[in-house]
Automatic annotation (TrEMBL):
This is DUF420 domain-containing protein. It comes from Halobaculum marinum. Pfam families: DUF420. The chain crosses the membrane at residues 21-42, 62-80, 92-109, 129-153, 174-196. It comes from the Archaea. The keyword Transmembrane applies. Keywords: Membrane, Transmembrane, Transmembrane helix.
Length: 197
């Protein structure tokens, strides 16, 4: 084996580094395709193993806890970055991403098996409070996917010192802000749907 040929892992990392925006776009498109396919009922519920009913019923509450935890880790990650503690920043943002993936997996799993939950409150509350909050929550969550994937792609393919020459900080600030708002609105939707009504 020639010493001039980089290992395939390094070639892949170099490709992703050199094409971060395009790779993030493709990964985001694939992730969102799965989300929209599940939300659109294109994933047959019979093809998915069914968890016990108690777990399916607990998913909304578990996701509210996950959302509150994610808000905490995102804010801690932003604070760490401002304090230039980039090791802690990386840990908190990876935790945030893991929490987001956990939320999404549980949400889509329940959605594929049970469909959407009807709002049981008054029509005026549904129309002027619940549905607008839900729409903004979903829109922000969709917008966050490519932003977060792009920031992670930049961070995962470069040493910390090289990130200052990229859009990581600028896009990361936008992503973190939208992410926190989306999670917070998701908790409000949960409260309206499962607590208040």
């Amino acid at each position: 084996m020639s010493t001039d040929t980089p290992p395939s892992g390094n070639r892949l990392r170099g490709f992703v580094r050199d094409h971060s925006l395009g790779v993030a776009g493709v990964v985001s498109a694939l992730a969102l395709a799965v989300v929209f396919a599940t939300a659109g009922g294109l994933v047959p519920s019979g093809a998915i193993p069914r968890a016990p009913t108690a777990f399916l019923e607990a998913i909304p509450t578990l996701n509210a806890v996950v959302s509150l935890s994610a808000i905490g880790t995102i804010l801690a990650g932003v604070r760490a970055a401002r304090g230039r503690d980039f090791v802690a920043h990386r840990r908190f943002m990876l935790a945030s991403t893991t929490l987001f993936a956990t939320f999404l997996a549980m949400y889509l799993y329940r959605l594929a098996l049970l469909g959407t939950t009807d709002f049981a409150g008054p029509g005026v509350v549904e129309r002027y409070v619940y549905l607008p909050l839900l729409a903004i929550h979903i829109l922000l969550a969709v917008v966050c996917v490519p932003l977060v994937v792009y920031v992670l792609t930049l961070a995962g393919t470069r040493p910390t010192t090289d990130l200052f020459d990229t859009a990581h900080a600028r896009v990361g600030r936008i992503a973190a802000s939208l992410w926190v708002v989306s999670f917070a609105l998701g908790v409000l939707v949960y409260v309206l749907l499962y607590v208040v009504y």
